[in-house]
Amino acid sequence: MKDQLEKIKQEALRQIEASDALEKLNDIRVAYLGKKGELTSVLKSMKDVAPEDRPKVGQMVNDARTMIEGKLEEAMSILQKKAREEQLKKEVIDVTLPAKRNKVGHTHPNTIALKEVERIFVGMGYEVIEGPEVEYDSYNFEKLNIPKNHPARDEQDTFYISDNIVLRSQTSPVQVRTMEKGKLPIRMLAPGRVFRSDEVDATHSPSFHQIEGLVIDKNITFADLKGTLAEFARELFGLETKVKFRPHHFPFTEPSAEMDVTCFKCGGKGCRFCKGSGWIEILGCGMVHPNVLTMSGIDPDEYSGFAFGVGLERIALLKYEIDDMRLLYENDIRFLKQF
């Protein structure tokens, strides 16, 4: 038994010294000290040892176990230290290198302008509603009093997916969808991306953004429209801003108008920014056409309303004095970080 224990001990020590990885040491621990290990097998065979020799043999087994465990711990400590040193060499930090700055983005000027407009109208009791960018021709044109072959379609030439499905040329279809629900009164704002077959230049793009507003209620008049938009202009461009309405034509409103605001650069005196006129065109508006109300299931004899639409990019261009619309889409950090 003594020879057997000495042989087990020497073999274990040899394997420990030859090990170069922590995984191998763990395998040695299991092979010699585990439940089915060599020393455990010796202990199980104690029944074959004479009773008077059992304490001596048991002590020899414990001594062998203690020595093997000590050598294992020593070897593991050495290997762990080597592994830590190698890790530190690989992960060394050169403190002489310049630090990497974390570049944090910020809100796009279009989004800044949109949030400002939404804040103004939500404060007046309006609800912001969005709709699909891919729209039926009937919602984009016909239900807005623009039947097929109407000349107004030339001004809003858009991209057709099929004969009946288009990329919307305005956010007015969102207004029609809201009116069709029949929940009156309505005070809504419809922002979103629209598409038109325009050439790209400093003031045009085939894809841009619109913000349209709609109010439907009893006894709504043009005076309500003027008062609302005048307050909007003062909130957006300054308390001294004045507005001017010029007669115009839109198929879905009657009467219709274009609204100008006093130049916020010169205060209406005339400058290069307003081309000497003192006024800047800002949006189109008008009273909702009775035909549009009727097609949406609203009685024009009982209800009336007004609508308006403004280009989001136009607001951003004017408010931040940007002279080229393309700058908003080029994602040049030198331009965007100014906002």
TrEMBL record:
Source domain of life: Bacteria
GO terms, biological process: phenylalanyl-tRNA aminoacylation
Cofactor(s) the protein requires to work: Mg(2+)
Sorted UniProt keywords: Aminoacyl-tRNA synthetase, ATP-binding, Cytoplasm, Ligase, Magnesium, Metal-binding, Nucleotide-binding, Protein biosynthesis
Gene Ontology MF annotations: ATP binding; catalytic activity, acting on a protein; magnesium ion binding; phenylalanine-tRNA ligase activity; transferase activity; tRNA binding
Entry binding sites for Mg(2+): E254
EC number: 6.1.1.20
Main subcellular location: cytoplasm
Record's subcellular location: Cytoplasm
Chain ranges passing through the membrane: none
One Pfam short name: tRNA-synt_2d
Self-association and partners: Tetramer of two alpha and two beta subunits.
Family: Belongs to the class-II aminoacyl-tRNA synthetase family. Phe-tRNA synthetase alpha subunit type 1 subfamily.
Matches recorded under PANTHER family: PHENYLALANINE--TRNA LIGASE, MITOCHONDRIAL, PHENYLALANYL-TRNA SYNTHETASE
Protein name per its UniProtKB record: Phenylalanine--tRNA ligase alpha subunit
Organism, scientific name: Lacrimispora saccharolytica (strain ATCC 35040 / DSM 2544 / NRCC 2533 / WM1)
Gene: pheS
